[in-house]
Recover the amino acids of this structure.
C-alpha cells in the first residue's frame, strides 16, 4: 500500500473539508454557503448558544464573516438543505433525503424512553397530533400543546406528550422540520409539504445502497480516514459496513493506504487533493466535521480534544465552550469563548497553547488575536476581552492591538 506522511494526510483532510478553497473575492454568497455543504455533506446542529449556534460556525471557519440569514435561507425558503438525524441532529443537502429513509424506517422499530411513554401507550394521541399538523400547517410542539401535558417540571430531559409525538413523527419521516424558530424549536409540517417534490419522488435505495452512498460521501468529505472514522460520519453501525467499504475499494473509489507512524489501514478517496500547503487559519467549533471524530483529531493533529460542557466547572481543563485554532495546518491553540451580547464583548475565558504544534506562543497569540477580532465583528460584538486563564492568556492579552481592542468588521446577520 502507498504510504502518506502525517503532514500530507493533514493537507488532504483540510482540502477535502474546503479549507484549501479559494476565499471569496467579496462577501460570501449563497453559492459559497452551498459549497460548504458540498464539501462537508452534513452540518451538525446543537442547542448551546454561549457563542453562536453550532451550525453557523463551519461556514464561518471556511469562508470568514458572512450573513447568517443567508445561511438560514438555504433551509427555508430555498429548501436546499433539510434537518434530520444524519450525524447527530444535522442539516444535509436535500438530495440526501432518500439516503436516510432507511433510518426513518428503522425508527419505527426502535425504542426511546422519552418517546415510548406516549407513542406505545397511546397511539391514538399520535394520530391526533398527525391530523392536527395536517390541518393547521407549520407548528412547534409547544403550539400543539401549550400546556405541555406530561412534562415533569424540573427535569432537564423531560418531554411533554406533544413533544414526544412530533419527535416520533419526525424521526419516522412523516413530519419534517421547516426551520428552527427564535427559541430553537423545530417548526414541523408534513414532509410532503417540506421536501421538494422531485426529491420525494426519487426512488428509495436499498439499505446497502444507501449506506454505501453515505460512506462514499463521508470518504469524499474526509479525503483520507480509517473505516471507523468513515462509519462515524453518518453514525453507521453493523458488520455490513465492512463489506460496503470493500465494495468501494473494488470500484476504485477508495484506495487503502497507510499513514506513517499511525496504526491501521486508512482509505484515500480517488478525488482527494494534496495541496502543497494550506495557509488557512480558522477557529473550529467542537461540532466541526473536521474535528468531531476525536480519535482522528488526536491521530492527525496530536490533539486530545473533549467537550467539557457537561463537566462540573471545577473539573474542566480547558473550559466550557472550547474552539480549536487551526494555524499553518496545525492545531495551535484552544480557546474558551463566550459572547456577552449585553456588554457587546467577546470574552476569552481561557486560552491554551498547543505545544505539540511546534509554533511559538507569541506568533500564535498575534494571529489568534486578529482572528478573535474578526469573529467578534461577525457576531456584532464591539470588542474582545481576555479575562480567563491558561498559558496563552497573557500572550493573547498583550498581543497587538491591545487587551480590549475594537472588533474587526463582520458581515453579521
Amino acid at each position: 500500500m502507498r504510504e502518506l506522511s502525517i503532514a500530507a494526510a493533514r493537507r488532504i483532510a483540510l482540502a477535502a473539508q474546503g479549507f484549501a478553497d479559494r476565499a471569496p473575492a467579496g462577501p460570501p454568497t449563497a453559492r459559497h454557503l452551498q459549497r460548504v455543504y458540498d464539501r462537508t455533506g452534513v452540518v451538525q446542529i446543537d442547542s448551546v448558544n454561549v457563542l453562536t449556534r453550532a451550525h453557523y460556525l463551519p461556514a464561518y471557519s471556511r469562508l470568514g464573516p458572512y450573513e447568517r440569514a443567508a445561511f438560514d435561507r438555504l433551509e427555508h425558503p430555498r429548501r436546499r438543505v433539510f434537518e434530520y438525524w444524519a450525524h447527530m441532529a444535522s442539516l444535509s443537502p436535500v438530495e440526501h433525503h432518500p439516503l436516510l429513509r432507511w433510518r426513518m424506517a428503522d425508527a419505527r422499530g426502535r425504542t426511546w424512553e422519552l418517546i415510548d411513554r406516549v407513542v406505545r401507550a397511546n397511539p391514538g394521541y399520535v394520530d391526533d397530533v398527525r391530523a392536527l399538523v395536517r390541518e393547521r400547517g407549520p407548528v412547534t410542539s409547544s403550539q400543539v400543546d401549550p400546556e405541555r401535558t406530561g412534562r415533569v417540571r424540573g427535569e432537564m430531559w423531560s418531554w411533554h406528550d406533544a413533544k414526544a409525538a412530533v419527535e416520533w413523527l419526525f424521526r419516522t419521516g412523516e413530519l419534517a422540520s421547516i426551520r428552527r424558530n427564535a427559541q430553537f424549536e423545530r417548526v414541523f409540517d408534513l414532509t410532503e409539504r417540506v421536501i421538494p417534490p422531485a426529491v420525494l419522488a426519487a426512488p428509495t435505495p436499498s439499505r446497502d445502497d444507501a449506506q454505501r452512498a453515505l460512506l462514499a460521501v463521508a470518504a469524499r468529505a474526509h479525503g483520507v480516514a480509517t473505516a471507523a472514522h468513515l462509519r462515524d460520519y453518518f453514525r453507521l453501525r453493523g458488520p455490513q459496513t465492512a463489506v460496503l467499504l470493500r465494495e468501494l475499494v473494488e470500484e476504485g473509489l477508495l484506495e487503502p493506504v497507510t499513514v506513517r507512524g499511525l496504526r491501521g489501514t486508512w482509505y484515500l478517496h480517488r478525488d482527494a487533493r494534496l495541496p502543497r500547503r494550506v495557509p488557512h487559519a480558522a477557529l473550529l467549533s467542537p461540532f466541526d466535521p473536521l474535528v468531531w471524530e476525536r480519535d482522528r483529531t488526536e491521530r492527525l493533529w496530536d490533539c486530545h480534544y473533549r467537550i467539557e460542557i457537561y463537566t462540573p466547572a471545577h473539573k474542566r481543563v480547558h473550559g466550557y465552550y472550547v474552539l480549536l485554532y487551526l494555524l499553518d495546518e496545525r492545531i495551535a491553540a484552544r480557546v474558551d469563548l463566550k459572547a456577552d451580547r449585553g456588554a457587546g464583548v467577546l470574552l476569552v475565558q481561557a486560552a491554551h497553547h498547543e505545544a505539540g504544534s511546534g509554533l511559538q506562543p507569541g506568533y500564535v497569540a498575534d494571529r489568534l488575536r486578529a482572528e478573535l477580532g474578526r469573529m467578534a465583528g461577525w457576531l456584532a460584538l464591539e470588542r474582545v476581552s481576555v479575562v480567563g486563564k491558561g498559558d496563552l492568556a497573557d500572550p493573547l492579552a498583550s498581543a497587538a492591538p491591545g487587551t480590549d481592542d475594537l472588533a474587526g468588521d463582520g458581515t453579521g446577520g
